[in-house]
Amino acid sequence: MRSVRRRRPAAGLLSASLTVLSAALLTGCFASGGADGGSGGSDGLPSGSSSGGRLRVALAFPPTENFSPYGADATLLSRLGVTEGLTRLDGNGAATPALAESWTRENDRTWLFTLREARFQDGTEVTPAAVAASLTHATRAKPLPTALSGVSLTATPSGDHRVRVTTEAADPALPQRLAGPSLAVLAPKAFKAFKADGANGANGANGKQGAAGGAKAGEGARPDLVATATGPFALAKVNGSASATLNRFDDYWGGRAHASGIDAKFIADGTARANALRSGETDIAEAIPVSQAASLTEGTAREVPTARNTSLVLNTRSGVFADPAIRAAARAAIDTPALAKGVYEGHADPGQGLYGPALTWAEGKRVRPAGRARPASAQDVRAALKGRAVTLATYDNRPELPETAQVLQQRLEKAGFTVKLTVREYGRLESDALAGKFDAVVAARNSMLDTGDPVSILSSDFTCDGSYNLALLCDKAVDRAVTTADAVADQGERQDAAMAAEARILGTDAVVPLVHQRIIVGVAPSVRGVDLDPYERSLVTAGTRR
Q: What's the pLDDT at 398?
């Protein structure tokens, strides 16, 4: 394994001629989304410039876990430029330097990461001990971060500038995995509230001091994210689920950010986000509804092809969809091209699988699902329901989802189902969905968000022990296929194995891919340097300004 190196320039500015040597990882070709600007110094400007005013950002999803980095809120933190990990992903899904400037693979299970000179937002130095303790906390979080689904790792300091990370089993995707937003590196101060006696006074969670120097985070443990991360912007104040205030971190290793801070508002209603952009109340609005895109000022709607899929996920553990034939009937009733053309007004592609057309490597490797059950007839569906309705749930943070659910309701009822719709805000839906309280869920999921590795999402979403298994699927053949894929190191062969596992999963009809999304971000004409990230991990960077 070749090392990956990036040295910090003497003045703390990002080098315009930076050359990154990519590790021999399992990277897939990702179709470019036409980014408006990348991390640190976009639009050809140096990262060190710092004359801009504050940025006003409207986000679709409010924090649901008090900004815990271990769950869904982790992406909010990375998109606002608060948190970073040891690595980050480039546009092709390869791991590139972040807090680690280089790494080498010592053997099948052990990697050595060399840290760059950097500071936490509380002014303390990023040390090997601090990094190891932070990663240890992540491994002990309950529930486990999805990036660590199926993976057991240990992090230990190794000298003045290095951290050694060892996995229980070989993990060729480890550098990509450590780029996951839920594995951000935090200062020791973030975990100060975890008392040695097991009480976490700040968050009401439990924790005990671990041998590796990190607290053992118990159920619900939430580190303090106020000025304890390493990104260009520090979280200063949180107003519940309504808004957050962030200030520029002047000692950011990549150079001072252009903007002096960020005023973020969490607006679940997509039309309200679009209106805020139109009225000049916000500078950046994510997830603009397709119905609003055409009415925005020319040039302000930026469409980004992503690896995000909208899917119908069926509860395989309990209820009527525990029967494969009933699941097959639901799948057969759906017209995915009509959804892409109608609900998404052409801003999406019909569902092909778990890896959509934005991942260009997938098209030539797709494997036809095998072993699918014969769809039950409408008469058999009605008999199985015995007069009961199936509950179809979704959330309204992404406005196309309720409309998609309504179309599915109509299609399913033609196939013999009686359907009851439940629409909530995502934060009020997730726990019930994971607990199997619905028969079916319409959900949007970026298949490469957690690690950038095509196998990792299969492990987290579709295996017996998966941490985000909405389908509650537990199929031995699927688990074997995912385990086989996860052991493959070669890029092309790993992709092949992932597609074989995808075919196994689709063969169960636990998930029905509906459309592959293109996300629309609203950007005011005066704003430059927004990172239109196909992985949806980044939005505001050190180079973003107005």
A: 87
The whole-number pLDDT of residue 526 equals 94
Q: Which of 468, 356, 466, 334 is nearest to 412 (CA)?
A: 334
Cα atoms in the Cβ-side hemisphere of radius 13 Å centred on 285 = 28
> DSSP secondary-structure letter at 30?
B
Say which amino acid occupies 480: R
Print the SS3 string covering 428-469.
HCHHHHHCCCCCEEEEEEECCCCCCCCCHHHHHHHCCCCCCC
pLDDT digits (tens, 9 = 90+) for 75-108: 999 999 999 999 998 877 789 999 999 999 999 9
In sequence order, the β-bridge partners of residue 103 are: 113
Q: Under a CB-based contact definition with an 8 Å cutoff, are residues 308 and 359 in contact?
A: no
C-beta separation of 237 from 81 below 8 A:
no
Q: In degrees rounded to 5, what are phi and psi of residue 212?
A: -85, 5
Tell me the two tokens of residue 418.
């009686």
Within 139-278, strands assigned E span 153-157, 162-167, 199-200, 205-209, 215-217, 233-239, 243-248, 261-266
Query: What's at 408, amino acid-wise?
Result: L
Q: Can you tell me the distance from the alpha carbon of 222 to that of 182, in angstroms, rounded to the nearest whole number? A: 12
Structure tokens of 401? 């989802």
Say what the pTM is. 0.74
What tokens does 11 get? 């003045």
Query: 394 in helix, strand or coil?
Result: strand
Q: Is 103 helix (H, G, I), strand (E, B) or coil?
A: strand
Task: Find the helix packing angle between 476-486 and 491-507, rounded to 10°.
Answer: 170
pLDDT of residue 408: 98
How far, rounded to the nearest angstrom, does the alpha carbon of residue 138 sit from its chain's CA centroid? 16
CB 522 within 8 A of CB 296: yes
φ/ψ of 316, rounded to 5, equals -85, -5
Q: Longest C-alpha distance within the chain, in Å?
A: 74
- Hey, what are 303's tokens? 């469409």
Reported as half-sphere exposure (CB side, CA atoms, 13 A), residue 499 has a value of 20
Which segments of the chain have a pLDDT < 70?
1-51, 193-221
User: What was the pLDDT predicted at 462?
Assistant: 97
Buried b (16+ CB within 10 A) or exposed e, 511-528: bbbbbbbbbbbbbbeebb
